[in-house]
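Sorry, I am new here, but would you mind making up a protein's amino acid sequence and the tokens describing how it folds?
***
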Amino acid sequence: MRWLKIFVALLIMCSAGCIQKSSEYTQSFQNITVSEAYKLIQNNTNLIIIDVRGCKCTYNKEHIPNAIWDTYPEDFYGTKKDLLIYSQVDSTSMDFCKKLVGHVYGKIYNLKGGIDAWKAAGYQIES
């Protein structure tokens, strides 16, 4: 009987630890403007910029400086870095962000207007 009580106590402690750990995951993402994204890029050394446009050829043609191209959200599961996501179409980047929620520890940002808004604002593009 004593062993059963110890087992139950350990089980409860383990469950509490698991619940605590999962609550550390980011539970939402934030839509930000181009000017907010620019400031974020300038000031956040813990940031990964991700181009999620469907074809790598569009990335190769032009992208935000220091961005990487990746269309698989699971590649970032467990990351502790902040993520800035952009696409050509807001729905694509928002879907990507939604798939990251609950799976990463860092903050998740969606660039409203995507690369077109970035270019319209006159910010630098790499090719």
Summary: The domain at 26-120 is CATH 3.40.250.10 (Oxidized Rhodanese; domain 1). The radius of gyration is 19 Å.
